[in-house]
Structures are given as structure tokens and as C-alpha cells.
Input
Amino acid sequence: MKKHYAERVALALPSLRVESLSRTLIEEIRRTRKTSFTLAPEAGTDKMRQIINKGNTAGDLLASVDQIFAAGWKSIKLYFMIGLPHEEDRDLDGIVDLAYQALRAARRRGQVTVSLSTFVPKPHTPFQWEKQLSLDEIYNRQNFIRQRMNNRNLSVKWHDARMSLLEGLFSRGDEKIGDLLLLAWQ
Output
């Protein structure tokens, strides 16, 4: 990275695990031209992050957000999943709460975008047999969060619910799914 500092190369990183960030890494990235910075807390409460085996807490996230804004970023994206096993309304409220806490850490310095993806059970994972949300339930949870985010510096985006359902179908289907896809294409 150091050889590109003078060239003002923009560095756009994928979503980063909160626990993988350090002040040193943020400082190194800071020396490049700033785009948005994406963090992946994955869930709105410490309880849910423990269930999905993520090694970060709300405190870790907020400390990282504060360091990122202090280093000069104007925009942060927070990536969350909805529809995780054992998720309750208070876990969705946790997403909203974390977003507002991140916005407070910005201290009028920037924008926070919440990106929602729907949990899709995948084979060969601990949650492979968990039920996937219905289309209506996905819309309900997206709206639950969207309606609670009403600040011009806070936005929410989500993955198309229909695509999430198809992803679940394709990821857990057998060879007959290939036949079905071919038939649909024809």
C-alpha cells in the first residue's frame, strides 16, 4: 500500500470483520483516498453474534466506528443479516440501536448506511436445517427496521427478498433443481 500513497489510489475493501480491525490497519488504509468503509457486525445484539459465532461485541463495533470517522472517513456501511435462527424483535431493534449509536460516533462527520441481507441456510453449515423466512416475513422485518430509521444521515438498503428465497432453493436443492432451472430457462 505504501507505494501507492503518492498516487492517491482509492482503496475499497470488502466488508471487514469488526474484530479484525486495529488502529494500525485503519491508519494504513487512511493514507489512501477514502471511499466508504464497510464493517460486518452481522447481527444487532451480542446474543445473536454469539449464536452465529462472531467474535465481536457492540463495544468493539462502536470503538471501530469512532476510529474510522476520526481517521477521516465520511461514510460507513454496516452489514447485517436478518432472519437468523432464534432472532427476535429485540434483535432487530438491536440493529437500529447500533446504527444510531454509530451515527452518534460520526458526530456530524458522516453518513451511516445499514445494509440488510436475509439469512440463507446453506448445506454443510451448523444452520443447514434451519427454516428460511417466508417472503412476507422478510418484508416485515425489512420494514420493521426501515420504519425506525428516520435520520437524513442514516440510510438502509436491503437485498431483494425474492433473490434470497431463490438462493436458499438453489443452495439446498439437489440435481432436480438443475432440471427445473433448465425447464424455466426454456
Notes: The chain has a mean pLDDT of 86. The CA atoms of residues 115 and 157 lie 5 Å apart. The first strand starts at residue 37 and ends at 42.
